[in-house]
Amino acid sequence: SYTIIDFLEKDQHFREKLHNTDMEDIKMGKLAKELDFVSHHVRTQLDELKRQEVSRLRTLIKAKQDIEGGNDMAVDHQALLKQFEYLNHMNPHTFEVEDLDRLIKSATNDLENYDKERHEEFKKYEMTKDHERREHLKTLDDEGRKKEEEHYEEMKKKHADHPKVNHPGSQNQFKEVWEEADGLDPEDFDPKTFFKLHDSNGDGFFDEQELEALFTKELEKIYDPTNEEDDMVEMEEERLRMREHVMNEVDTNKDRLVSLEEFLIATKKKEFLEPDSWETLEQNQAYTDEEMREFEEHLAQQEEDLNQKASDLQKQRDELERQQEQLNSQKVELQQVQSGEKKICIFKDVKNELYSKLLSLSVEGNAIPEPQGEYHPLPLGHQDMSQNHPGMKQDNHLQNQIPHNTQDLSQPRLQDLPPGHQAVP
Which residues lie in Polar residues bias regions (predicted)? Predict the structure, then answer.
């Protein structure tokens, strides 16, 4: 079966609130309202879970009665087994009385565990509430602490100031329901008629929900949702206590259902006619001092673990930031290398383009040698004199085409000299 923790882990509203609330706010009680809301939500889910368990239990009991009664009614055991998939190790083909007894016991144990779980969750709720109140007091100055303590005592006093609560399951309690809820004369109270009036589904049994509905009038004496001093979570715990008490007194075969016969027998007992006074929840503290001490030690350990986890996460974050800085530096270096390679590629492209242009502009028949190594273009105004160099081989074809009377081009002509200069012989 599910637990409170399972429901809280699946509750998106609670997870978001808890994630966005730091430890100091939790200590100050700022999350209390959200916890109250979730507690109500969880309780609603658990109530639905219990209704499913009761429905399962009633189906089993009805099938058992049909078999024991010899009604010769066919029992759809496959349909029954479908409700108990976690028990399908039982005989899947025939459904005997012994099988049903075992399943009923299993279902009853589930419901008992459910009630125990509810009591434990309520105990934690009360201890948490008291712990947060005391932690809040530590944050106040003397005057503020005094006012808060006075207000707390005043609320306790107001909550305890209520009409007398009848003993659950007593004649006085049922007569009050008979008169106020049913509108009947208390002098005409009849147990059998009362039972049939409140057996809402008419199956001949009071289940747990039908019993708990009988205590609403008593609970309204103690709890009012509009009052600051009244806690509705405590009201549901009080309802559970009342139901458990009546079941213990009336449910003699311990099947967690009250039959008409069991009810009528109980109305003849002294406890029904002359009951003891009923001690309400505020008269019975839900936890002991030792349990509170252990609970606070557990909270302190949880806080220490959370702080350690936060510290570890911060270290991991710092390390990730350091690694990110390294990656950024490496990225910059890579970009610089890529930029340099791009420049080299551009230079090679320019060199090749220049060489192509030189080829296209060369004198027809002249061969321009293939550049060897890196190409270094001549500065403007300079000529390649390698053809006239004494040590260079001349192109015979070009020499044959030069007229013999051509002037020595190595000597400047007079008209080429700047004004005022004369040629030196």
Answer: 397-413
Q: What's the 3-state SS for 21-35?
A: CCHHHHHCCCCHHHH
Residue whose token pair is 């004199």: 385
Distance (Å, rounded) from C-alpha 35 to C-alpha 145? 24
Residue 406 Cα to chain centre, angstroms? 102
Contact 45, 14 (CB under 8 A): no
CA atoms within 13 A on the CB side of 107: 28
CA–chain centroid gap for 7, Å, is: 10
For each of the chain's 425 residues, which pLDDT tens digit applies? 334 345 445 556 555 665 555 444 544 444 444 545 555 555 566 556 556 655 666 676 666 666 666 555 555 555 554 554 444 344 444 444 454 455 556 666 677 788 889 999 999 999 999 999 999 999 999 999 999 999 999 999 999 999 999 999 999 999 999 999 999 999 999 999 999 999 998 989 999 899 999 999 999 999 999 999 999 999 999 999 999 999 999 999 887 889 999 999 999 999 899 888 899 998 888 899 999 999 999 999 998 999 999 999 999 999 999 999 999 988 888 888 877 777 787 778 778 888 887 787 764 455 555 555 544 555 555 454 444 444 444 444 444 444 444 444 444 444 455 555 454 44
Burial class (CB in 10 A: 0-12, 13-18, 19+), 287: middle
> Considering the entire predicted model, what is its pTM?
0.55
- Give the dihedral of Cα atoms 164, 170, 176, 177; nearest 10 deg: 120
Q: Cite the beta strand spans of 248-351 per DSSP E.
A: 258-259
